[in-house]
Protein backbone atom coordinates (compact mmCIF):
# COMPACT_ATOMS: atom_id res chain seq x y z
CA UNK A 1 0.00 0.00 0.00
CA UNK A 2 1.41 3.35 -1.03
CA UNK A 3 1.59 6.18 1.45
CA UNK A 4 1.58 9.88 0.67
CA UNK A 5 4.95 11.64 0.91
CA UNK A 6 5.55 13.52 4.17
CA UNK A 7 5.74 16.77 2.25
CA UNK A 8 2.17 16.29 0.95
CA UNK A 9 0.86 15.45 4.40
CA UNK A 10 2.48 18.57 5.85
CA UNK A 11 0.95 20.69 3.07
CA UNK A 12 -2.53 19.30 3.76
CA UNK A 13 -2.13 19.81 7.51
CA UNK A 14 -1.04 23.42 6.92
CA UNK A 15 -4.02 24.00 4.60
CA UNK A 16 -6.41 22.59 7.23
CA UNK A 17 -4.83 24.84 9.86
CA UNK A 18 -5.27 27.92 7.64
CA UNK A 19 -8.94 27.07 7.00
CA UNK A 20 -9.50 26.71 10.75
CA UNK A 21 -7.91 30.09 11.46
CA UNK A 22 -9.93 31.79 8.71
CA UNK A 23 -13.07 30.30 10.26
CA UNK A 24 -12.09 31.77 13.61
CA UNK A 25 -11.65 35.20 12.00
CA UNK A 26 -15.12 34.96 10.44
CA UNK A 27 -16.61 34.23 13.87
CA UNK A 28 -14.71 37.23 15.24
CA UNK A 29 -16.09 39.44 12.47
CA UNK A 30 -19.66 38.37 13.26
CA UNK A 31 -19.09 39.18 16.94
CA UNK A 32 -17.69 42.62 16.06
CA UNK A 33 -20.69 43.38 13.89
CA UNK A 34 -23.02 42.66 16.82
CA UNK A 35 -20.91 44.67 19.25
CA UNK A 36 -20.73 47.50 16.73
CA UNK A 37 -24.51 47.90 16.84
CA UNK A 38 -24.38 48.09 20.66
CA UNK A 39 -21.59 50.69 20.54
CA UNK A 40 -23.57 52.79 18.05
CA UNK A 41 -26.65 52.84 20.32
CA UNK A 42 -24.58 53.71 23.40
CA UNK A 43 -22.66 56.51 21.68
CA UNK A 44 -25.80 57.94 20.09
CA UNK A 45 -27.49 58.13 23.50
CA UNK A 46 -24.40 59.63 25.16
CA UNK A 47 -23.89 62.32 22.51
CA UNK A 48 -27.58 63.13 22.43
CA UNK A 49 -27.65 63.62 26.22
CA UNK A 50 -24.48 65.71 26.13
CA UNK A 51 -25.83 67.96 23.38
CA UNK A 52 -29.07 68.62 25.28
CA UNK A 53 -27.31 69.41 28.55
CA UNK A 54 -24.61 71.59 26.98
CA UNK A 55 -26.99 73.34 24.55
CA UNK A 56 -24.48 72.80 21.72
CA UNK A 57 -25.65 72.24 18.14
CA UNK A 58 -26.09 68.53 17.42
CA UNK A 59 -24.05 68.86 14.23
CA UNK A 60 -20.94 69.50 16.35
CA UNK A 61 -20.98 65.86 17.46
CA UNK A 62 -21.92 62.89 15.31
CA UNK A 63 -22.05 59.48 16.92
CA UNK A 64 -22.93 57.92 13.57
CA UNK A 65 -19.83 59.46 11.95
CA UNK A 66 -17.54 58.33 14.77
CA UNK A 67 -18.90 54.78 14.91
CA UNK A 68 -18.91 54.51 11.13
CA UNK A 69 -15.21 55.36 11.08
CA UNK A 70 -14.51 52.87 13.89
CA UNK A 71 -16.39 50.12 12.06
CA UNK A 72 -14.57 50.82 8.78
CA UNK A 73 -11.16 50.64 10.47
CA UNK A 74 -12.12 47.41 12.24
CA UNK A 75 -13.33 45.87 8.97
CA UNK A 76 -10.12 46.84 7.18
CA UNK A 77 -7.95 45.40 9.97
CA UNK A 78 -9.85 42.10 10.04
CA UNK A 79 -9.94 41.89 6.24
CA UNK A 80 -6.17 42.31 6.14
CA UNK A 81 -5.69 39.56 8.74
CA UNK A 82 -7.93 37.14 6.82
CA UNK A 83 -6.16 38.08 3.58
CA UNK A 84 -2.77 37.19 5.07
CA UNK A 85 -4.10 33.68 5.64
CA UNK A 86 -5.39 33.27 2.08
CA UNK A 87 -2.75 35.26 0.16
CA UNK A 88 -5.37 37.25 -1.79
CA UNK A 89 -6.86 40.68 -1.20
CA UNK A 90 -10.65 40.89 -0.82
CA UNK A 91 -11.91 44.34 -1.67
CA UNK A 92 -14.72 46.48 -3.05
CA UNK A 93 -14.97 49.85 -4.76
CA UNK A 94 -15.64 52.90 -2.59
CA UNK A 95 -18.78 54.70 -3.87
CA UNK A 96 -17.84 57.87 -1.94
CA UNK A 97 -14.83 58.31 -4.26
CA UNK A 98 -16.52 57.47 -7.58
CA UNK A 99 -16.78 60.16 -10.25
CA UNK A 100 -20.47 61.04 -10.93
CA UNK A 101 -20.26 59.56 -14.45
CA UNK A 102 -19.38 56.13 -13.08
CA UNK A 103 -21.90 53.38 -12.36
CA UNK A 104 -20.98 50.78 -9.73
CA UNK A 105 -22.32 47.23 -9.75
CA UNK A 106 -24.53 46.06 -6.90
CA UNK A 107 -21.65 44.12 -5.31
CA UNK A 108 -19.42 47.23 -5.65
CA UNK A 109 -16.75 45.26 -7.50
CA UNK A 110 -17.55 46.21 -11.10
CA UNK A 111 -17.69 49.72 -12.56
CA UNK A 112 -18.70 51.21 -15.90
CA UNK A 113 -18.92 54.64 -17.51
CA UNK A 114 -22.41 56.07 -17.86
CA UNK A 115 -23.69 58.65 -20.34
CA UNK A 116 -25.12 61.01 -17.75
CA UNK A 117 -23.74 62.91 -14.79
CA UNK A 118 -25.34 61.60 -11.59
CA UNK A 119 -26.19 64.17 -8.95
CA UNK A 120 -24.03 63.15 -5.99
CA UNK A 121 -22.64 65.03 -2.98
CA UNK A 122 -19.40 66.78 -3.92
CA UNK A 123 -17.61 65.42 -0.87
CA UNK A 124 -13.81 65.81 -0.52
CA UNK A 125 -13.23 62.12 -1.28
CA UNK A 126 -14.96 62.17 -4.69
CA UNK A 127 -13.12 62.54 -8.04
CA UNK A 128 -14.94 65.44 -9.68
CA UNK A 129 -13.20 65.56 -13.08
CA UNK A 130 -11.41 62.30 -13.87
CA UNK A 131 -13.58 59.14 -14.22
CA UNK A 132 -11.78 57.42 -11.34
CA UNK A 133 -12.72 55.38 -8.29
CA UNK A 134 -10.72 53.97 -5.36
CA UNK A 135 -11.03 50.56 -3.76
CA UNK A 136 -11.18 49.54 -0.12
CA UNK A 137 -9.46 48.56 2.06
CA UNK A 138 -6.18 50.44 1.77
CA UNK A 139 -2.79 49.00 2.69
CA UNK A 140 0.33 50.31 4.43
CA UNK A 141 2.31 47.08 4.97
CA UNK A 142 2.59 43.49 3.77
CA UNK A 143 1.98 41.95 0.36
CA UNK A 144 -1.43 42.19 -1.33
CA UNK A 145 -2.58 40.85 -4.71
CA UNK A 146 -5.82 41.12 -6.67
CA UNK A 147 -7.02 40.86 -10.28
CA UNK A 148 -8.77 43.42 -12.45
CA UNK A 149 -10.90 42.11 -15.31
CA UNK A 150 -10.21 44.28 -18.38
CA UNK A 151 -11.66 42.15 -21.21
CA UNK A 152 -14.45 44.73 -21.61
CA UNK A 153 -12.21 47.70 -20.87
CA UNK A 154 -12.84 49.41 -24.20
CA UNK A 155 -10.37 51.76 -25.91
CA UNK A 156 -8.99 53.44 -22.81
CA UNK A 157 -8.75 52.50 -19.15
CA UNK A 158 -6.16 52.10 -16.39
CA UNK A 159 -5.70 50.07 -13.20
CA UNK A 160 -3.26 50.23 -10.33
CA UNK A 161 -2.84 51.81 -6.90
CA UNK A 162 -3.01 55.36 -5.59
CA UNK A 163 -2.10 57.13 -2.39
CA UNK A 164 -5.00 57.71 -0.04
CA UNK A 165 -4.17 61.44 -0.32
CA UNK A 166 -4.26 61.51 -4.15
CA UNK A 167 -5.94 64.65 -5.53
CA UNK A 168 -9.64 64.17 -6.16
CA UNK A 169 -10.37 67.52 -7.81
CA UNK A 170 -9.27 68.64 -11.27
CA UNK A 171 -7.22 66.93 -13.98
CA UNK A 172 -4.67 64.29 -12.92
CA UNK A 173 -1.45 63.18 -14.63
CA UNK A 174 -1.69 59.49 -13.60
CA UNK A 175 1.99 59.20 -12.65
CA UNK A 176 3.97 58.27 -9.52
CA UNK A 177 4.65 61.96 -8.98
CA UNK A 178 0.89 62.40 -8.67
CA UNK A 179 0.69 59.45 -6.28
CA UNK A 180 -0.57 56.90 -8.83
CA UNK A 181 1.17 53.71 -9.99
CA UNK A 182 -0.76 52.16 -12.87
CA UNK A 183 -0.80 50.53 -16.29
CA UNK A 184 -3.53 50.76 -18.89
CA UNK A 185 -4.61 50.97 -22.50
CA UNK A 186 -4.90 54.08 -24.61
CA UNK A 187 -6.57 53.38 -27.97
CA UNK A 188 -4.94 50.03 -28.64
CA UNK A 189 -1.57 50.70 -27.01
CA UNK A 190 -0.67 49.51 -23.52
CA UNK A 191 1.31 51.93 -21.36
CA UNK A 192 2.90 52.11 -17.94
CA UNK A 193 2.07 55.55 -16.57
CA UNK A 194 5.60 56.67 -15.73
CA UNK A 195 7.29 60.06 -15.26
CA UNK A 196 7.83 62.19 -17.26
CA UNK A 197 6.37 60.28 -20.23
CA UNK A 198 4.29 57.13 -20.43
CA UNK A 199 6.22 53.95 -21.25
CA UNK A 200 4.78 51.96 -24.20
CA UNK A 201 4.45 48.24 -23.43
CA UNK A 202 4.95 45.47 -25.97
CA UNK A 203 2.73 42.54 -24.99
CA UNK A 204 2.62 39.19 -26.79
CA UNK A 205 -1.13 39.02 -26.20
CA UNK A 206 -3.64 41.36 -24.61
CA UNK A 207 -4.64 40.11 -21.14
CA UNK A 208 -8.24 39.53 -20.21
CA UNK A 209 -7.38 40.26 -16.59
CA UNK A 210 -4.43 41.98 -14.94
CA UNK A 211 -2.92 40.90 -11.64
CA UNK A 212 -1.82 43.72 -9.35
CA UNK A 213 0.67 42.85 -6.58
CA UNK A 214 1.48 45.53 -4.02
CA UNK A 215 4.54 44.48 -2.01
CA UNK A 216 5.73 46.81 0.75
CA UNK A 217 8.61 44.49 1.71
CA UNK A 218 10.13 44.71 -1.78
CA UNK A 219 8.75 48.26 -2.15
CA UNK A 220 7.19 47.67 -5.55
CA UNK A 221 3.93 47.36 -7.49
CA UNK A 222 4.08 44.57 -10.06
CA UNK A 223 1.60 43.96 -12.89
CA UNK A 224 1.19 40.65 -14.73
CA UNK A 225 -1.23 38.78 -16.96
CA UNK A 226 -3.61 37.16 -14.45
CA UNK A 227 -4.01 34.03 -16.59
CA UNK A 228 -0.47 33.12 -17.64
CA UNK A 229 1.42 35.25 -15.06
CA UNK A 230 3.50 36.90 -17.80
CA UNK A 231 5.09 40.08 -16.36
CA UNK A 232 3.77 43.39 -17.69
CA UNK A 233 5.55 46.11 -15.70
CA UNK A 234 6.96 46.79 -12.23
CA UNK A 235 7.09 50.14 -10.43
CA UNK A 236 9.50 50.92 -7.61
CA UNK A 237 7.91 52.48 -4.51
CA UNK A 238 11.12 54.18 -3.37
CA UNK A 239 9.44 57.58 -3.68
CA UNK A 240 6.35 56.50 -1.71
CA UNK A 241 6.23 58.38 1.64
CA UNK A 242 4.81 55.34 3.44
CA UNK A 243 1.14 56.31 3.54
CA UNK A 244 -1.76 53.96 2.84
CA UNK A 245 -2.21 52.87 -0.79
CA UNK A 246 -5.55 51.86 -2.31
CA UNK A 247 -6.70 50.12 -5.51
CA UNK A 248 -7.39 52.67 -8.26
CA UNK A 249 -9.31 52.47 -11.54
CA UNK A 250 -9.67 54.91 -14.43
CA UNK A 251 -12.76 54.09 -16.52
CA UNK A 252 -13.12 55.16 -20.16
CA UNK A 253 -16.12 55.40 -22.45
CA UNK A 254 -17.90 52.06 -23.01
CA UNK A 255 -15.57 50.55 -20.44
CA UNK A 256 -16.33 47.93 -17.79
CA UNK A 257 -13.72 46.97 -15.18
CA UNK A 258 -14.07 44.58 -12.26
CA UNK A 259 -12.05 43.88 -9.12
CA UNK A 260 -11.55 40.18 -8.39
CA UNK A 261 -10.09 38.76 -5.15
TrEMBL record:
SUPFAM superfamilies: Concanavalin A-like lectins/glucanases. It comes from the Eukaryota. Residues 71-261 form the B30.2/SPRY domain. InterPro entries: B30.2/SPRY, B30.2/SPRY_sf, Butyrophylin_SPRY, ConA-like_dom_sf, PRY, SPRY_dom, TRIM/RBCC. Pfam families: PRY (PF13765), SPRY (PF00622). SMART domains: PRY. This is Thaicobrin-like.
